[in-house]
Design goal:
282 residues; single chain; mainly alpha
Length: 282
């Protein structure tokens, strides 16, 4: 219906000046954390709905103000401070998910903020773990070309490798936490990254992360401490193992499983068990 479309467009146009004006007012609300939290929440919703129309300058201003407020409140563990940081994380997640080239220019700064500022705050605030790891997942999934450009002559060459490794190391650390919701979320996220981008076969992953991830996942499954999420853990481990089956290259059965079993079983039982395992050949 053309009338409804026209009406919807006119409403969006009328909201744009309000959103831009709100950003100019945000610094005046910083003295009152509660008011700042509510205004930021509303502005974040507007940004999510109108991010393309609002443009790069608006987002730069909003992210800058949020970062300034975060710097002031990161030493606080109050509920208002936590909510403000959560809204900031949601804003950054919205920005990194946007495919426009204008928004891609924010990627390096957002990675830097996430790894060097937000991470330290989130480590002591468990309620923010889920949103923080969603941000990290979104950085990888929606900005894969930032690490592996499509037009690169060497498909295994990882650009910005330090950031790439740092993000994945945080995923590995999260699998050792006691929060099964975060473990489930990140196990699914890793599986998804492998489905979409063949994460587990990447040279940098094989060289630096494969062994750690396999050991952690085996620990979780053998411990039986998290039966509710065993299916997700098994799927992640299966995909990881399936990416490294070659015996000649120290694949899953030869390297990871043997080493892991050797750490928990007496030698006679280990030898008996390994004789029963048929190593697949390609």
């Amino acid at each position: 219906n053309f009338y409804l479309v026209k009406q919807w467009y006119q409403r969006r146009v009328r909201v744009l000046p309000v959103a831009r004006h709100l950003v100019t007012l945000l610094p005046h609300f910083e003295k009152s954390s509660l008011i700042f939290e509510h205004v930021l929440s509303f502005t974040t919703v507007l940004c999510d709905a109108l991010r393309v129309q609002l443009g790069q300058q608006f987002l730069q201003q909003l992210v800058g103000l949020c970062l300034s407020n975060f710097t002031k409140s990161k030493s606080s563990s109050s509920e208002v401070a936590k909510t403000t940081v959560e809204k900031f994380i949601e804003l950054l997640t919205t920005v990194v998910r946007e495919p426009s080239a204008v928004f891609k220019s924010f990627t390096p700064d957002i990675i830097n903020i996430a790894l060097n500022d937000i991470r330290l705050y989130v480590e002591r605030v468990e309620t923010l773990h889920s949103s923080f790891y969603l941000l990290l997942y979104s950085i990888l999934d929606f900005n894969w070309n930032y690490f592996y450009p499509r037009n690169a002559s060497d498909r295994e060459a990882c650009l910005n490798r330090e950031s790439f490794l740092a993000i994945l190391q945080l995923f590995g650390s999260s699998l050792m936490k006691a929060d099964f919701n975060v473990i489930k979320q990140n196990a699914v996220a890793l599986t998804d990254l492998n489905d979409k981008h063949e994460l587990f076969t990447k040279q940098i992953f094989t060289a630096h992360l494969k062994g750690h991830f396999m050991t952690v996942l085996l620990d979780l499954l053998f411990s039986g401490a998290m039966p509710i999420i065993e299916e997700e853990l098994e799927e992640t481990l299966y995909q990881l193992a399936n990416s490294h089956l070659e015996p000649s290259k120290g694949g899953f059965y030869v390297e990871a499983l043997t080493k892991y079993l050797a750490s928990i079983l007496p030698p006679p039982i280990l030898a008996l068990l390994l004789n029963k395992i048929e190593v697949p050949s390609n």
